[in-house]
Structures are given as structure tokens and as C-alpha cells.
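Project outcomes to date are best conveyed with an example. Our students and postdoctoral researchers have been running inverse folding experiments weekly, and each run begins with a structure described purely in C-alpha cells. The record below, which covers 119 residues, was selected by the lab manager from last quarter's runs and is presented without edits.
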């Protein structure tokens, strides 16, 4: 596992003008919808539906982008780009990497929500 931070809180807060209430809402939405978008991408991959993988990973990429999470963002971009090209040969490996990075991001975000953004 990488020693780099999972996401950059200062950058993510700067994206919302340091509005912690807005950031907390973004975290809540990601905790709810991020896993669903990941599951949709994985289901589309299992069905060999490249367009579905591209759609779901694109939606997930937009959410990840808000948190300045470079490893998760890179994994999502790679899955989206390969599926847009119709190439699902590396989809399983890319999906596994994306799932690991999304889980790491979720694990970092949950405590922020639990602490009420006391960070």
C-alpha cells in the first residue's frame, strides 16, 4: 500500500471555500453513492458492458475528484478510459485496484463525518 495520503483534506476544503458544512454533505453523499457507483461499474464489467463500466466509473470519478484522492482518481480514470475504448481485458485488475482505493478513501472519510468535521 502506498505511503502517500489517501486524500488531501486541505485541498478538498479549499474546493468548497473552506465551507465545512458543504464538505460534510459531500462526504455523506460519497459514503452513500460511491459504493453504489463502484458496484454498478463492477456489475457492468461482469456483464461485459463496456459502456456501462464507462458510465459508472465516470460518475464515480467526478465524486472522487472532489476529495483530491490521487490514487483512487487514477484507478478510476484508467478503468473509464479502457472501457470507453471498449477494452475490458484489464477490467478485473483495474476494478480491483479501484475498489481498494475507494475503500481506503471511505475509511478516511468516515471518521471525519463521525467527528462532525472537528478536523
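After processing, the design step wrote out the following sequence:
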Amino acid at each position: 500500500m502506498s505511503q502517500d495520503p489517501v486524500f488531501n483534506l486541505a485541498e478538498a476544503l479549499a474546493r468548497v471555500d473552506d465551507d465545512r458544512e458543504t464538505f460534510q454533505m459531500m462526504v455523506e453523499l460519497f459514503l452513500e453513492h460511491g459504493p453504489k457507483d463502484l458496484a454498478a461499474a463492477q456489475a457492468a464489467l461482469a456483464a461485459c458492458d463496456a459502456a456501462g463500466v464507462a458510465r459508472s466509473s465516470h460518475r464515480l470519478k467526478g465524486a472522487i475528484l472532489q476529495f483530491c484522492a490521487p490514487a483512487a482518481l487514477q484507478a478510476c480514470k484508467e478503468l473509464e478510459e479502457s472501457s470507453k475504448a471498449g477494452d475490458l481485458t484489464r477490467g478485473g485488475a483495474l476494478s480491483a485496484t479501484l475498489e481498494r482505493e475507494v475503500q481506503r478513501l471511505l475509511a478516511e472519510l468516515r471518521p471525519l463525518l463521525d467527528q462532525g468535521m472537528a478536523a
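The chain has a mean pLDDT of 92. The chain has one domain: 9-114. The training component of this project remains on track.
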